[in-house]
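[Automated response] Your request has been received and processed.

Submitted sequence:
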Amino acid sequence: MRFGSYILSSAAIAATVSAQSTTVVSVFAAGPTRLPLAGIKGSIVDANAVATTMVLNCVDAPSVTCALHQPLTVTEGPSTWSMSAVISTETRGVEATLTLDQKCKITSSTQLASCSESVGLQLSTEGFSTSTGTTTVTSYSSDSIYYPTMTVTGGIEQLNQPQATQTPDAAAGRIGMGGAAAAAVAAAAAGFL
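Generated structure:
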C-alpha cells in the first residue's frame, strides 16, 4: 500500500519538476568549515535511479563569490557523492594541470561519510615536466556534514527521462510512469527536490 502512495506523490513531484526551468537543490558537503555555494549554478547532465550527475560552474565569470575557472562534475545519490575536476592554467611559460577527485560513501544523509580525496599536480615548461599527487581518506561525523543549496538552471528535464528510473546496468527498455515516479523518489531522496 505504501508503494502506491509513493507513486502518486512522486508523479506529482515529477510533474512539478517538468514545469520548472530552474530549481534549488541541496548538495552534500563535509568538512570543518561550511562553505556556501554562492555564485555557483548547476546543470543536470544525467540522472538514473542511483544518482544524479551535475556540472557546476559560476553564474557569471569567476569572481570573489565564485572562484571556479572551469566546471566541476558532481555525482550524488543517497549513499554516494563524487566530484572531479581538471583545472589547467599557464603563467610565465609554465603550464599547470591540477586534477581533483573525491569519492564519498554516505551512511544515512547526516550520520557519517567516508571520503577518498586525490589531488594531482603536473607542471611543464620548455620540454621539462614534473608531477606529484596524494590521496587521503577522511571520515566525517554528523557535525561535519551539511547540505548547502544551489540553483540548477539546466537539465531539469533529465529527471523525467526514462533512463532516470533505471540503474546504470539496467536494460534500455522503457518502464513507463512508474519509472518517472521512481526517478522523482530517487531525486527527492538525494535531496535534489
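Summary generated for your ticket: The longest helix spans residues 2-19. Confidence is low (pLDDT under 50) at residues 1-18, 170-193.
If you did not submit this request, please reply to this message.
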